[in-house]
Amino acid sequence: MIPPLEIETAPHPRGAVIWMHGLGADGHDFAPIVPQLGIPPSSPLRFVFPHAPGMPVTINGGCVMPAWYDVRHPDLAAEEDEAGIRTSQQAVIALIEREKQRGIPPSRIVLAGFSQGGAMALHTGLRYPEALAGIIALSTYLPLKASLPAEAATANRSCPIFMAHGRMDNVIPLSRGKQSRDLLLDCGYAPEWHEYAMAHSVCEEEIADIGAWLRRVLSPEC
Question: Residue 211: CB partners within 8 Å, gap ≥ 6?
Answer without folding.
Answer: 36, 37, 38, 39
